[in-house]
Amino acid sequence: MPARAPVPVTSFLAERYLPAATREVLDVLVDRDRSAADVMSIRHVQTIYVPEDETCFTLFEAQSAELIAAASERFGLGYRRVVPAIALHSRDPSARADGDQDP
Fold first, then answer.
1. What CA–CA distance (Å, rounded) separates 79 from 88?
2. Where are the domains of the chain?
3. Is the dihedral of CA 73, 75, 78, 81 positive or negative?
4. CB count, 10 Å around CB of 31?
5. Superfamily assignment of 11-85 in CATH?
6. H/E element holding 59?
């Protein structure tokens, strides 16, 4: 069986510490992330906040992890770690990426 080519990585997971954030604070931070991403030719894909761990994860698409780290530094986004990631999306068309429930 021939060896498979590695999956090209253009997705990166950025992590930052975020104690006791409200929904309003998260909305402001995500808006800042998106604005910085636009300036730096990066695509903001999704942000997930884990309140119990006081950790915020953001998935970006970019040419490199270094570009995301540079955006974090330049715009004061506070990301402590940026690592390559492979995003797998749900095959269930009714699954919602934002985690909210329909009323």
1. 22
2. 11-85
3. negative
4. 11
5. ORF SCO4226, nickel-binding ferredoxin-like monomer (3.30.70.3090)
6. strand 55-61
Dig out the tokens for 59 from the structure: 């998935």
pLDDT tens across 26-73, in order? 999 999 999 999 999 999 999 999 999 999 999 999 999 999 999 999
List the strands of the sheet with 81-85, edge to edge: 43-50, 55-61, 11-17, 81-85
User: How far is residue 68's CA from residue 73's CA, in Å, rounded to a whole number?
Assistant: 9
Is the pTM of the predicted complex or chain greater than 0.85?
no
Nearest to 42 by CA among 26, 21, 65: 65
